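Quick one, T. Sequence first:
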Amino acid sequence: MARKDALKELQARLAQRLQEVPAGEAPAWLAVECAGARLLLPLQEAGEIVEHAPPLLPLPHAQPWFEGVLNLRGHLHGVVDLAVFLGLRPPGAPHSPASRLVALNPALGLHCALRVDRLAGLRSAAQLVPLPTPPVNGADAAALGGIPAGTAAGAPAGDAPASRPAFAGELYGDNQGRTWQALRLAALARDTHFLHVAQPLPGTA
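Structure tokens:
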């Protein structure tokens, strides 16, 4: 109960801070980390943050990045390990104690929550500088902490497109020299591989 009250108090303080910030400096992203990659989730496309999720209901024959199903406020949500989906970490690794679930905004029309390793606060456009999009080279993009170009996370081997996936947004740099990759959650919610959570059954591939 104490943890739940503390989380509600934190959310209330954040809401108050957002109201007090001038419009041009208002946070636009929720900053998170996944397997060492720094990612920006648009606040308008993100929903509830779940600190301590109950046990998930596993889904048979699911993709390795699909953890299971969660009942969140009366609605069933699929839970995706974002680091595994993006190819940043192999499946089966233990979760960090700091991991959280970030639900998609209900307006996106998809009941889904993303597991991230750590929350890293809020970011506004005034705190970040746009960076050039990396070349179509997976190693170069990975070195920048971005989504590898030329790959679509979750795609079967040999099916990777020749460009960055549509849900890979802009790259930004902060005043500490760190690179942040923006994700377009609305585009992610429409991504073919993201929506295809079931593995092909033997003999049907």
